[in-house]
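Consider this one:
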Amino acid sequence: MASSKPSTPSLSQHRPGKILIAFDFDHTIAEENTDVFVRRLLGPEGLPAEIEAQQRSLGWTKFMGAILQHLHDKGITSNQIRDLMQRTPLTPGMDVLLRYLHEKHHVFDCVIISDANSLFIWWILHFTKLEGVFPLSSIYTNPARIDDTDCKRQSGAWQTSLVGSVSQVTHASNQ
């Protein structure tokens, strides 16, 4: 399932006089960590020990790439991953808050600054009909895509503490 929707955004124009609200995604909008939630597709056997052992040496983004490759190697499709992500629960009350902020779009600009990946975020926002709250240009995160073999790929490491701070400052300074 190829999708051109999620991608790394260009910085959006925050309108003067509006309040900028920044959200993380995992454990904030989504109740769970989506990178951990996707492992449910592996069933009770979970990850092989050799992949689990790579977490520290690879760093989180490359480790997630290894997990996604393992899911692909086990025959788990991007549709199955998307279907699971659409069952990721939102933090209680978050949908009400986000719909309110969207209704008051003349007062608030909302952005996501997260180390979750763009496909997981987009699939969840789209399924919950919250994508209008966060235009793609307001989501700062790890870019992800589905390749020609139906394998989900994350592109590059996204340093949340550094890039997240820069994203906030840059987004706000484009006002």
User: Anything to note?
Assistant: Residues 60-73 form the longest helix (14 residues). The chain is about 40% helix and 15% strand. The mean pLDDT is 81.
